[in-house]
Design a protein that fits this description.
With 320 residues, the protein is of the alpha+beta class. The protein contains 11 helices and 7 strands. The longest helix is centred in the last third of the chain and has 27 residues.
């Protein structure tokens, strides 16, 4: 949703903060490299994908392109574009790239570069990496799909809260958006008098004449300047005291009433709500890393893997 769109309610979601150094172990780094095989191998495969449409003249239906004795048929293009083999290209782009790649390939064959030792080794290496990637996908990634439970994330957060430091100031807020100033002012005065945001809101919302005039309500969520809309109200938040309730503030989305529960400075631990996405990703990563390490050890044992390095060789740190 565009926060600047007239009449639309802003989406007060939280953005994830960067969590570095999730895993620095050697096996953890190897696991990350395995997971990356798919991304870079896809780039290497693009020319190969374009060659799958090759067929000799006169087969496969209508011809859409021809280079030398090789043709690209409409049937093949449609089939590839309907799958991920088409790389998300439109038909015209697919055909044009096929022509470019096929012309270059013909020249490479003419120079006998397609059968060089270097090419043969690269093909074998790529096949090996793709097979490993498929194995990891099947044995680890596919078995750990799905979201992490809220209780698991909270437990992890309680143990590692100090690792989730805020990169910028944040505020834990309650706020409500109203359609008219009269209701917003009445709500504000009731909260300021009692100090009970939740109780006052529930009473107001239960009244059908009020509920129709309430646009949105958020309670106890953490926001940063970059995740709070409208942006101009962030200055009000930074000038408020803990527990203070703002005067009604008109915006293009409605009349805001805000209460500051807590203001956190950069460097302090981020609140749970602010880092839920990071928690989920870190928990999944660590689970997958552990599965990868155990699986790797099991296949090494199964195939009697051995090394025959000298003491001096084994003490050398491998290059990354």
């Amino acid at each position: 949703m565009d926060p600047g769109a007239e009449g639309e309610v802003p989406r007060h979601g939280v953005r994830r903060c960067a969590c570095e150094n999730v895993c620095t172990t050697e096996k953890g780094l190897r696991f990350m490299k395995v997971l990356r095989f798919g991304a870079w191998s896809a780039m290497l495969l693009l020319p190969a994908l374009l060659f799958v449409g090759c067929s000799k003249k006169g087969t496969g239906g209508k011809t859409l392109a021809k280079v030398g004795n090789e043709v690209l048929t409409e049937e093949t293009v449609k089939k590839d574009l309907a799958s991920n083999r088409g790389g998300g290209l439109q038909e015209a782009d697919y055909v044009n790239r096929w022509v470019e790649a096929q012309a270059l390939f013909e020249e490479a064959k003419k120079r006998k570069l397609d059968t060089s030792e270097e090419i043969e080794r690269a093909v074998v290496d790529l096949r090996k990496r793709m097979a490993i990637n498929a194995l990891i996908q099947k044995e680890i990634i596919d078995k750990t799909q799905g979201s992490v439970s809220d209780s698991a994330m909270r437990a992890y957060y309680n143990l590692h809260a100090g690792e989730f430091a805020l990169q910028e100031d944040a505020a834990k807020l309650n706020f409500a958006i109203f359609k008219d100033r009269g209701l917003a002012l009445a709500f504000r005065n009731n909260v300021a008098k009692s100090g009970d945001w939740k109780g006052v809101y529930e009473r107001f919302a239960q009244d059908s004449s009020n509920s129709a005039r309430i646009v949105a309500h958020v309670e106890g969520q953490q926001f940063k300047k970059s995740t709070f809309f409208p942006a101009e109200l962030w200055k009000d938040v930074t000038n408020m005291s803990r527990g203070e309730v703002s005067v009604p503030r008109p915006t293009q989305f409605g009349i805001y009433v805000i209460q500051l529960e807590e203001f956190l400075r950069a460097g302090q631990p981020a609140g749970f709500d602010l880092v839920k996405k990071d928690l989920e990703e870190r928990i999944l990563f660590e689970k997958r890393q552990d599965m990868f390490n155990k699986f790797l050890e099991s296949v090494k044992k199964q195939y009697h893997a051995e090394t025959f390095l000298s003491a001096s060789d084994s003490s050398k740190k491998p290059k990354e």
